[in-house]
C-alpha cells in the first residue's frame, strides 16, 4: 500500500475552479483501487505550529500499488480536466510513502 499526501496551495479567487477539477479527480481515485482517506481545509486558527504557509487543502490518498497510482495519474478523463488544476493551483507539495 502506498500513501500520497498533498499540500495544495490555490491561487486567490480560484477556489471554484479547483472544486470543478476535484469533482472529476476524486471519483477517478476509486477506479484505480485507490481511496481518499482524508480531505481537509485547515483553518488558520486550527494550526498549532507552522514554519510554512497553511495550505488550502490537505489530501491523504492510498493505492494498493504504484501501478494503480500511475494508472490514476494517466486517467484520460482526469487529463482532459487538468487545465482546471493548472488554472487554479499555485503549487502542490506531494509526499509519497508507505505505512510503517
Describe it for me?
37% of the residues lie in helices and 31% in strands. The protein is an alpha+beta fold. It has one domain (2-97): Alpha-Beta Plaits (2-Layer Sandwich), CATH 3.30.70. The longest helix is centred in the N-terminal third of the chain and has 17 residues, at 15-31.
Secondary structure layout plus pairing:
Layout: E1 2-10, H1 15-31, E2 35-40, E3 57-63, H2 66-73, H3 76-80, H4 82-88, E4 89-97
Antiparallel strand pairs: 1-3, 1-4, 2-3
Write out key terms for the chains shown.
100 residues, alpha+beta, Alpha-Beta Plaits
The outline comes out as globular
CATH class call: Alpha Beta
Rg on CA atoms, Å: 14 Å
How widely separated are the two ends?
11 Å
Question: Count the strands?
Answer: 4
CATH topology: Alpha-Beta Plaits
Low-confidence stretches: none
Q: What percent of residues adopt helix (DSSP H or I)?
A: 25-40%
Question: What's a concise summary of this model?
Answer:
This protein has helices at 15-31, 66-73, 76-80, 82-88, and strands at residues 2-10, 35-40, 57-63, 89-97. By secondary structure, the chain is an alpha+beta fold.
